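Aim 2, interim progress: modelling of the copper (II) ion-bound target.
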Amino acid sequence: MLYALEKLKPLAFLSLVAVGHASTDKGTQVVLQIDRMMCASCTSRVKKTIESHTGTSDVSVRLEDHRASFSCAKIKDAKCDLDKIVKSLRKIGFPPKVVSK
Ligand SMILES: [Cu+2]
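Predicted structure of the complex, ligand included:
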């Protein structure tokens, strides 16, 4: 029994870490740092690009601190793919750094 508990501990720790991201029913809260955004037209391009991806919601893009934040959730069989979002932002000239996810 003791042995079994010891075995479970690392697992319990791992699941705690996973929940440590601000996970809600809307998915994971992602924050991106995008230094190349210089004006309102940049932020709107970034916002539209993020919104075009499956599973994203509550997209908020701020020029002041050069950050974009949004929820990234699994919708039916399609999951919100952060790698794809990062790639498409790079493609339009706004390489992001993932601050948190
Ligand atoms: Cu601009």
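The radius of gyration is 17 Å. The helical segments are 2-19, 40-51, 82-91.
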